[in-house]
Design brief:
By secondary structure, the chain is an alpha/beta fold. 20% of the residues lie in helices and 26% in strands. The mean pLDDT is 94.
Length: 581
Amino acid sequence: MPYEGIKEWQDTKDIRMEWFREARFGMFIHWGLYAAAGGSWEGKQYPQHYAEWIQTWAAVPSSSYAKVLKPKFTAAKFDANQWASLAKRAGMKYVVLTSRHHEGFSIFNSQQPFSLDNEVTGGTNISPSGRDLYGEVMTAFRKKGIKTGAYYSLLDWQHPDSYEGFAFNPNPKNYRPNYEQYKNYLYEQIKELATNYGELDVLWVDFSSKNREGDAWGTKRILTDLIKWQPQIIVNNRFWDGLENRNGDIGTPEKYIPPTGLLGMDWEVSHTMNESYGYSAHDDKWKSYDKMMRLFLETVSKGGNFLLNVGPDADGAIPAPAAKLLEDIGQWMQINGTAIYGTSASPFEGLTWGYCTQKKEQLYLHVFDVPASGQLNLPLLNKVNVAYPLHNRKQKLKVKSTTTGTTIVLPKSYAGPQPMVVVVETAGKLKIAQSMVQAQSDGRIMLTANEVKLQGRGGIKLVGASTHNPNRPNAIGAWSMVSDEAYWDVKVQRPGTYKVVLRYLPNENQMAKVSIVLADQKVEYTFVAAASTDFKDVEVGTIEINQQTLGQENVKLILKAESTGQKLLPQISSISLVPIP
């Protein structure tokens, strides 16, 4: 039951959530003892995407782990004011800092007896003598007007009374954990975070499973008192199992964006700039600025917040590529922040050239891929009062109304930070037409799962990325019936012959057959059974687009199942129509 049935949480939700719905952009900071390992142990590099899990990757007992890493966690270059200033320049409105992670060590100075002195590691507090690193961060960010949050792990790999306490640690006396004792430890540490450091805006707990959720952590007691200690606080949904469960205040997809957002709830995507949350010295897979902005704007355009992670090293230095990305995002936000803060989800199903956010009578069009025509075809039937680039409000753009929507002529040049944002001010309640896919600048027509329309009764749906596979595209999946189908509305702008390229995920059990129909043209393809973890492109034939088709307002391209093989069609992420010169 949401909030364990504690009425005060539900009664105050809209008031407590007001700033969160305005903020849209925050900083996640993973900083703990794992940073001193930097993704390696005893000279071996671990390639897993979570360097903060190094203790499990290397299967190190807590005592050895502490002995090696405590002296290396110096915070010698740590300056909380620099961190806060960087977040401020990036346009971030809140911060969530790891007060303690799964390893059980905390960067706040807990006064619990086990934290001050224990037989396993000597103590869980790792701030250098005379300092409280967590408190310094909270103070610095508040001074910059940034809301503050505490990440707190419900797991603990060193406490003998936790559910995981002896996974790596010796237990020669066959001690049996007292889970009630551990639940009390959780309660007391959360109380310290909520009562010793001033106002706390977010408690971001992590993580639960089907076997351990809710009262396994003592949630009834914690939540009853937490809202008394901090009446304005937001709590995420990870006291309970499932990143998209509807308990608590916010859903928490991790490293993936739900294909259609999470309708009917507040949510936030946490994402990384490279592969790992915690610091890894050898993780050089930094996302480009363009990739980062697409993740950011896709999230906000679907109604979510974007919590972007940094992983400082053991000295407290934020890696240079991460700092550079934040500075670049900040330059864009300085010009375009109004298209982010306080906005709601796009009213459109999918836009081939970018994303849309909205606020009151204004639509904000985030243009990543300029169409070949230099024009945006928007499925909007309202009268447009004015359209202009957000960076230059005086530059009025030409707007044309058609029976299928609105055409906006883009500026011929733009030298500012990408993507350019176009503001469209409308009159009256929004009236949305069916969206159409346009050709790209090279004439290619890309029909992706993001713009597809699905119909049928067999469970056909969009299947998206996941925490452990964040780079996979959205795809049409769960397709089990030949009566189901997928289609796109296409605005054809160039006649000629096009290669038809299908992108799908091979499956060793599937030999299904599909057809692709555009007007009177049809091609078919039978999938070859093959095992793969990567999507594959296959050319399935050619389609001729004639002058008559060109004159139509829009044309449907239909993807049909001729047979579904043994059970399901392979997942299909896109169809490309590539012009043949």
